[in-house]
Structures are given as C-alpha cells and as structure tokens.
Write a structure and sequence with these properties.
By secondary structure, the chain is of the alpha/beta class. The chain folds into two domains: 49 residues, no CATH class; 242 residues, Pyrimidine Nucleoside Phosphorylase, Chain A, domain 2 (3-Layer(aba) Sandwich), CATH 3.40.1030.10. The chain has 15 helices and seven strands. It has a seven-stranded mixed β-sheet with strand order 3-2-1-4-5-6-7, with helices on both faces. The longest helix is centred in the last third of the chain and has 17 residues.
Amino acid sequence: MHAFARFIQILGKGRNGMRALTRDEAYAAMQMIACYDVEPEQLGAFLMLMRVKEESAEEVAGFTQALRESFHVAETAFRPAIDWAAYAGKKRHLPWFLLAALILAGRGYPVLMHGLRRDDERLYVPDALEALEIEPARSLREAEEQLQLRGFAYLPISKLSPLTAELIETRTLFGLRPPLHTVARMLNPLAAPLSLMGVFHPNFAAIHQQAALLLEQPDILICKGDGGELERIPDRDVELYGIRGGEAWTDNWERLIRPGIEVKPGRLNLHRFIQIWEGEVEDSYGERAVIGTLALIIRALNLETAAAPAHRLAEGWWQERREHPLTHLERPAATCACGRVEAV
C-alpha cells in the first residue's frame, strides 16, 4: 500500500469511522505532498475529503509548518512589522485595504502582502498596484529589498511557494475551495510579529486563531471583511479574533455608518481609486473603509485598544497620508476606460 494512503483512509472511512488528522499527521502528509511523493489521484482525493470535512486548527497548523519548511528563508532575512494575506479579491468595492497598508508603511510599519490573482470578475491587489505603479516582487529576496527601500512589498504566492499556488489552483479542476486557501494565509514567510487575514465565512476566523496559537504566532488579527479580505465593512458590526503576546482575545466593534446609505459602484474604477488616494476627490464610503481598517490594525498593534480612540488616530493618519508617502510613488499618466492603467 502506498504510504500516503493512510491519510486518505483516516479522512475517508465513512461517517462513523473518519476523523480529523492530528497536527503531526497533517505535517507528515504535507511533507509528502511537498516532496511530490503522492500520486495525482491520491492528492485529488485527499484535498476533496478535506474540503467535505473542513480543516481543523490542528490540520492547518501541521500543513502550514510543512509548507514553511519547503521554502528557504535566511536567518538574517529582514522582518517586516506586518504580514498581510490578500487572496480573496474584491467584487463589490475597490481594494481600500491596500491604501491602509500603504499608510502603515509610510508610518514606519513595513508590510509584506502576499496573495494571488485570478482571471475572473474580481479585482485583485496586482491590478491596483499596477494603477499605482508599484511593481510586485519577483522573489522573496526582492520582497525583502522592497521592504527595506519603501516599507511595502507584494509577493505573489506563486513566487513564494509554487507548490501552494499549484494546490490552490486545483479549485479550477474540482470547482471547490481546497484547504490551501486557509493555509496560504497562515504562511507569514518573514515571521512578522503581526499577521493579518480576512475571512469570508466567519467560522474560519476561530480556526485561524487557534492554528496561530499552535504555531506560536505572537500577534494576529482576523475578521470577516469585504469580499473575504481584511477590510472593514463600514455599515456592519465587526467581530474581531486576535492574539496579543501569545494570548487569544476577541472583541466586537459597532458599525461606522447606518446600513443602507452606501451605494454600490457600477464598476470598480481604478482611476477614481488613485484620485481618492491623491486627495483630488472624496469618497465617503472608501474613506471610512480605509479608516476603519486602519483602526482595526491600530487595535492589533496595541496602539489603542478601544474603538473610538483607534478611529480618531486612524482618521488622523488618513488625513496626513500625503505627509508620509512611500519613497517612489508617482502619479500614473493614463487610464483606460475600464479603469486599469494603460502603458504610455
């Protein structure tokens, strides 16, 4: 019998016989996958059995540990202040959370953001970065250099861990979300003390929190955000799941605006996105989304722990964003009708 078959047996013994993998079993299974010591049929069966069962915190911790060991990070690597997972993309609104990340970078909190881009109707971080004329990193080493130069770097998961990217892409074969969506958010390749991640399904927030405790992540913030990204939805209450100094915490903050007054834009216009960032036009919803997102992170950084002072500080950061620019940002020259930047 193939050595990997035992993990499929554990997950697939039927309603009464199946169980979740222990952390050690999950670690061993992902090690075999990382070494490509698994048949394609086995991998497909394993991922779909995990999908039906849904991953546990112990499984996420074991998978994450094995994947972290599959890519090399030098002991002398630059460590950012914040690791920000951005995998969901935006459908209803522009990626306001990216502006929050740039403000944090300008304030002296280096941010490593990692994620992906799909060919679908959503707008992803690389689209917005192109509009802002910010080049994604092509390797983990280049991401380190960008972090030291400007305090912000975006690293596609395919450049960080091609294996993880391959496993995520099995979604196109099965039509179902594999557990690697959860695991990719946990990778934190440069061991930033604070890790940020958004979820679409609220039940995954507690799983991320418990997995982070098992992995001894010092600080973390998870919440249900717009589209599944870590972005405050201004007209909804938000439940926060965090870790501070190795201790778990939860909090609930009330909505910022009355429900129903927000009007969904007809299209996601990146030209307008830049104008708002430059201060040329105002957008009440977008500004509140940025400020609200910043306030959550201010809470996670322990700069302010109550909602009202955290929002006051965040609003000041938004108003002063032009006084703390990243070193190289310049205004793009032209934008096409769809809102994406054209080469000139």
